[in-house]
Design a protein that fits this description.
Distance between the termini of chain B: 29 Å
Largest interface: A-B, 28 and 29 residues
CATH superfamily of chain B: Cytochrome-c3 Hydrogenase, chain B
Number of domains of chain A: 1
Strand order of the largest sheet of chain B: 3-4-5
Strand content of chain B: 5-15%
Structural class of chain A: mainly alpha
Strand order of the largest sheet of chain A: 1-2
Order of helices and strands of chain B: EEEEEHHHHHEEHHHHHHEEEHHHH
Largest sheet of chain A: 2 strands, antiparallel
Number of helices of chain A: 13
CATH topology of chain B: Cytochrome-c3 Hydrogenase, chain B
Structural class of chain B: alpha+beta
Oligomer: heterodimer
Helix content of chain A: 55-70%
Helix content of chain B: 40-55%
Strand content of chain A: under 5%
CATH architecture of chain B: Orthogonal Bundle
Number of domains of chain B: 1
Radius of gyration of chain A: 21 Å
Order of helices and strands of chain A: HHHHEEHHHHHHHHH
């Protein structure tokens, strides 16, 4: 797609603006769908029906919510640091949106096909922490500050398991470019890294336990990075009121919300790209191609988003020390073992 | 900032110097935060002034009184003993039936009045259904405190069925004014017995569901076991009662140990905390005592329904009761513990003094004792496990 556009408008800034539009449109549409899905899934888990009046089965309720949030008074606490307070939600969203730049949507479309895609996403999504800290500090509210401190500690801790789990996939596929990583796994479900990658059977079977554990850990760490239950400590309602977004209302709150949902898809899609073959079809050549690619990657991403919703409405929340324990004493050592073992198997 | 005069005298704020890895010293200070009265997990308008060192709670000072409604003073100014009952309803608004019964029992003892057998059975059915409803809220909101939302709505779904039963009987869903001195306001309506039986049958499934998703959930156990341990002697010294006391392993239940009504006739067991997942008297034990009590209450309701006698639901007493001058204290086992009323009569138609012994108020007093050194998240767990109702704490 990049080449195609280049042939029309040449190498100019306009090219990148146009390339940046599809992820944004996707995020907005996806957020509407996911808000509705989350409400409906949680409702049916809890013997409720959720939205029923706004359109068929409440389909238009997310739109109505947005309209409501747009009309709400945009309050800023008198004692807040106004500049930082205004900036924070946008910084959080920027961090997430920047991650979408290197996320492939099909074999033919990726925002920016950089060679360090995996590394770039891990790095750029850390900007979110700065935004959250900013929000908590600028609110001038003690509960918000607690939320901000928690989220900083949490996101930084869980970056390490995430990076190590991605490292395993990178070791197997031999590339940091997400398109290359996916191409390596093309050709059916059994070529996916989670099942050991496209290697001879013996090597595959040896790799399988380690890649599978790495995949599970990546998913768990992903939930922690998105700050969702059971790792929703930064905004733990029953402890910190609403954590860093206690003082936010109206569209600023909506942007935090949008960033959280976008981040949910981001971590799901990365997991799908590096471990589950991204846009490649699980049936080899059947149903494969650039357009089917969009279908597959969105399907895989949505599946994990759904899992996150499911987990959120099932599990209680961890405590701060338990959260740190999980990251540093359970997930990280496990991954070190996995990295070592995978390296050994690949050398053999 | 909070005025330092409100701090207890033995508490001194002293900035502390700590060495960091780089050798430079880092000045740390404790922070005072108000938890409540508008906080999601203080279960009403409780205000906790907490002193924290990072996430660790150094001290907790509960401030109460935001919901004080002069219940006891109001009671003195009624023109009739029966008129106090709606006020008793509003004390512990999650278990109005138990409050009504406690007050009615006190006045009946003052009058030396025997109520008809049918009334006794109906009161047991109502009080036990109320106990289930109240514990469902305790358990459900506790799940929310721990971050699990789904069990909360399952609990409320079943509580609705109990409220439907109450609505059938007396028209109200929260504040019933049902148990009167000398009887109850209405007889059981047609269809009540069948619906109550159905409820008891289905309710065990809900309990199992909640056990599956919450009780034995590893995260939940990790969050509540060994947290907020209330040792036996401390519980007794602070005069705790109800699930708080039984959670600490003290085998004490007024329904068995100082029987009132017809509780002596039923087969059921007093549930105590055994420290299954941690120490005896931790939050998990208190939670589990409530879960088990709901099951025992279901047994009592089933037996009471099966043996329900026919007869009158009101005794022949005058409209305006004038007990002989004297005083009486009667205590009952409400869902939260020992609920007692102390009534002094001067021989006129209105009580000279009514004093309520509120279990939630007494149980809350132990909070600072057991929550020092816990983390903020633990404090939420402890407050939740005390199961306070601010209407009763403040009265």
């Amino acid at each position: 797609m990049e080449e195609l556009l280049q042939s029309f408008i040449g190498e100019s800034w306009l090219l990148y603006v146009i390339l940046a539009v599809p992820p944004l449109v996707f995020i907005l549409l996806y957020a509407l769908v996911t808000v509705w899905t989350e409400m409906k899934v949680s409702a049916h888990m809890q013997d409720r029906v959720a939205y029923m009046y706004t359109g068929p089965h409440g389909l238009f309720q997310p739109v109505a919510d947005i309209l409501k949030l747009l009309q709400k008074e945009d309050t800023i606490p008198a004692a807040a640091d106004k500049t930082l307070f205004r900036l924070a939600p946008f910084l959080v969203f920027t961090g997430t949106y920047a991650g979408f730049a290197a996320l492939p949507f099909s074999s033919a479309y990726i925002g920016s096909n950089i060679n360090l895609g995996v590394f770039y996403i891990v790095a750029v999504s850390s900007i979110v922490v700065v935004g959250l800290l900013m929000a908590g500090w600028a609110s001038n509210n003690k509960w918000s500050l607690f939320g901000a401190m928690r989220s900083a500690a949490q996101v930084i801790s869980y970056e390490i398991p995430t990076a190590l789990a991605l490292l395993i996939a990178v070791m197997i596929t031999g590339s940091l470019n997400l398109q290359e990583v996916i191409r390596f796994q093309d050709g059916g479900i059994f070529n996916w890294v989670v099942f050991g990658g496209p290697f001879p059977l013996l090597q595959k079977l040896l790799l399988l336990p380690f890649t599978f554990i790495a995949f599970l850990i990546l998913f768990v760490a992903g939930i922690a990075e998105v700050n969702r239950t059971p790792f929703d400590l930064p905004e733990a309602e029953s402890e910190l009121v609403q954590g860093y977004n206690t003082e936010y209302s109206g569209m600023k709150f909506a942007i935090f919300y949008l960033a959280e949902y976008a981040n949910m898809y981001l971590v799901s899609a990365i997991a799908a790209c590096v471990f589950l073959g991204g846009w490649s079809s699980p049936f080899g050549d059947f149903m494969s191609g650039p357009l089917w690619g969009v279908f597959w990657i969105v399907l895989k991403g949505f599946f994990f988003v759904f899992l996150q919703i499911w987990i959120r409405w099932t599990l209680p929340r961890l405590r701060v020390d338990q959260l740190m324990y999980t990251s540093w004493k359970v997930l990280t050592p496990f991954l070190f073992v996995c990295v070592f073992a995978v390296g050994l198997i690949l050398v053999l | 900032m909070i005025d330092s005069k409100t701090l207890p005298t033995n508490y001194v704020t002293k900035p502390e110097k700590r060495a960091t890895s780089t050798g430079r010293s880092l000045r740390t200070d404790e922070m005072i935060i108000n938890m409540g009265p508008q906080h999601p997990s203080t279960h009403g308008v409780l205000r906790l002034e907490i002193v924290v060192d990072g996430e660790i709670v150094v001290d907790v000072i509960p401030h109460i009184g935001y919901l004080h409604r002069c219940f006891e003073k109001h009671a003195e100014h009624m023109t009739n003993y029966q008129q106090v009952i709606p006020y008793a309803d509003r004390m512990d608004y999650l278990s109005s039936m138990s409050n009504d019964w406690a007050y009615a029992l006190t006045v009946e003892r003052l009058l030396k009045l025997e109520v008809p057998q049918r009334v006794e059975y109906i009161r047991v059915i109502m009080a036990e259904l109320q106990r289930i409803a109240s514990h469902l809220i305790a358990v459900g909101t506790y799940a929310i405190d721990m971050g699990a939302f789904t069990p909360f709505l399952w609990c409320f779904r079943d509580r609705e069925r109990i409220l439907d039963l109450f609505e059938m009987t007396c028209g109200a869903r929260l504040l019933y004014n049902y148990i009167w001195v000398g009887g109850v306001s209405h007889d059981l309506p047609a269809g009540f017995v069948e619906k109550a039986k159905d409820f008891c049958k289905d309710f065990r499934t809900t309990l199992k569901e909640v056990h599956d998703v919450l009780t034995y959930n590893e995260i939940f156990v990790k969050r509540t076991a060994n947290v907020g341990v209330l040792p036996k002697d401390v519980a007794v010294n602070y005069s705790c009662s109800g699930p708080m006391l039984r959670g600490s392993g003290v085998d004490w239940d007024l329904r068995r140990d100082d029987p009132y009504g017809v509780y002596g006739k039923f087969e059921w067991g007093v549930q105590i905390g055994k420290g299954t997942k941690g120490t005896v008297g931790d939050c998990w034990d208190r939670y589990m005592v409530r879960m088990n009590e709901m099951e025992e209450s279901t047994k009592i309701v089933e037996q009471a329904i099966a043996w329900l006698p026919e007869g009158n639901v009101q005794s022949a007493i005058p409209k305006r009761i004038r007990p002989e001058a004297g005083e009486m204290y009667a205590r009952t086992e409400s869902p939260r513990g020992e609920l007692g009323f102390y009534v002094i009569s001067d021989g006129t138609a209105s009580p000279y003094r009514v004093k309520g012994r509120a279990p939630a108020f007494v149980n809350l007093s132990v909070l600072p004792e057991i929550s020092k050194g816990a983390m903020i998240a633990d404090l939420v767990a402890i407050v939740g496990s005390v199961d306070i109702v601010l209407g009763e704490v403040d009265r």
